[in-house]
């Protein structure tokens, strides 16, 4: 699933390439993509509206419309937002929503696994219309060490569970939780309540540096190539992963083989020597 760096890259692309355009027509061909409301509600909410700003909350893209409502897109497992230069551009399989813009281009939502969603909501009614956004925790790039301590130290849950819980911290997933924990020298299965002040300071510093560097590299595109930017291009931060998806390869810090264990139905990568 695209995480904060990937979603932030798409947000910046939307800000640079799409904001300012007006939606002339909306075509919905995937009912599951608009399951939160309906195809009719998405068309009514978007047609005739200008896109005035591109925001992000956690892993959600939140595009402000000229009537104050938000176009919210969640990419989830395999969703992609792509810009086509013209409506006649080849249509990829699994294109479920198309926004025809007044400059002749189309903004398209493609999602082979159909877990993603598109919805138009009133930001003043998030509790009712988008509770997933309303209940998100703080943004990891905005939180300070004291704030991170407040959300981690009281909890007797494993570190990775806390880092990937969107109600605790918004935007981090499997990839960057492993990278952050490795950079901080802390094992993924340490309880939040066991973390020392120096460890919390290291976690905060690694969270800031890794997420910032990943955004600078336009995110991570793995072997499945499911994450791409608005132009269909992959990111480059996977070339800098220290542990994620590097089972058996040498740890970049100590040279010992990176280990992989099953954790909560997913793979977790870590170094037994470097992470205490």
Quick take:
With 276 residues, the chain is of the alpha+beta class. The protein has helices at residues 4-17, 39-46, 126-129, 131-134, 145-152, 159-163, 174-184, 197-216, and strands at residues 23-28, 51-57, 60-65, 70-74, 80-84, 95-101, 106-110, 117-121, 259-263, 266-270. Helix content is 27%, strand content 20%.
Task: Provide an overview of this structure.
It is a single chain. With 276 residues, the chain is of the alpha+beta class. The protein has 2 domains: 4-128, N-terminal domain of MutM-like DNA repair proteins; 145-270, Helicase, Ruva Protein, domain 3 (Orthogonal Bundle). It has 8 helices and 10 strands. Strands 1-6-7-5 form a 4-stranded antiparallel β-sheet, covered by helices on one side. The longest helix is centred in the C-terminal third of the chain and has 20 residues, at 197-216. It is globular.
Indicate the topology.
Blueprint (H helix, E strand, L loop, with lengths): L3 H14 L5 E6 L10 H8 L4 E7 L2 E6 L4 E5 L5 E5 L10 E7 L4 E5 L6 E5 L4 H4 L1 H4 L10 H8 L6 H5 L10 H11 L12 H20 L42 E5 L2 E5 L6
């Amino acid at each position: 699933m695209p995480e904060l760096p990937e979603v932030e890259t798409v947000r910046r692309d939307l800000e640079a390439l799409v904001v300012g355009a007006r939606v002339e027509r909306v075509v919905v061909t995937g009912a599951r993509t608009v399951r939160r409301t309906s195809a009719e509600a998405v068309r009514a909410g978007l047609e005739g509206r200008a896109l005035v700003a591109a925001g992000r909350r956690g892993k959600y893209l939140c595009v402000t419309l000229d009537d104050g409502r938000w176009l919210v897109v969640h990419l989830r497992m395999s969703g992609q937002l792509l810009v086509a230069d013209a409506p006649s551009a080849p249509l990829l399989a699994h294109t479920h929503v198309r926004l025809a813009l007044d400059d002749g281009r189309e903004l398209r939502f493609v999602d082979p696994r159909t877990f993603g969603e598109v919805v138009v909501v009133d930001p003043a009614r998030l509790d009712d219309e988008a509770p997933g956004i309303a209940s998100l925790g703080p943004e990891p790039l905005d939180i300070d060490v004291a704030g991170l301590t407040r959300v981690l130290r009281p909890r007797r849950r494993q570190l990775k569970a806390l880092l990937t819980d969107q109600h605790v911290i918004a935007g981090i997933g499997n990839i960057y939780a492993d990278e952050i924990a490795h950079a901080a020298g802390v094992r993924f299965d340490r309880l939040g309540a066991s973390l020392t002040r120096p460890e919390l300071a290291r976690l905060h510093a690694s969270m800031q540096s890794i997420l910032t560097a990943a955004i600078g590299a336009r995110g991570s595109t793995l072997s499945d190539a499911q994450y791409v930017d608005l132009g269909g291009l992959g990111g480059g931060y996977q070339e800098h992963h220290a542990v994620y998806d590097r089972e058996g390869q040498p740890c970049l810090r100590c040279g010992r083989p990176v280990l992989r264990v099953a954790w909560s139905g997913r793979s977790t990568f870590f170094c037994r020597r470097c992470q205490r």
